[in-house]
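Listing S7. Sequence submitted for prediction.
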Amino acid sequence: MKGYKAPSFEDRAAAAMQAKQKALAKLKAMPQPDAAELAERAARQAERDAVAAAKSAKAREAREEKQRLADEKRAQAKAEKLKAEQPKRTEEELKAARDARYAARKSRK
């Protein structure tokens, strides 16, 4: 019984060349699509592109809306914090401000 003989470089190169030739022949033997089929493929691709564009636009709008809501919430929290940090005005200060507004309104008449 003979032992295993490893293929030489030339053998491997020839086998690769034959495989390439066989694949090329098979590719050339395939029928070429006609114009109607190409147009149908292009229409399907355009439809897929439109659906993908609509989906990405919807996702972008959702992200922007989420960001807008987060910004509004952050701004509201900041305003509440500033309002809470303001010192409470006493009754005398409130009365003085009200009297000043009243006097300004009277002077305009």
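Caption to Listing S7: primary sequence and predicted structure tokens for the chain studied. The helical segments are 9-29, 35-85, 91-108. Residues 17 and 97 are 97 Å apart (CA to CA).
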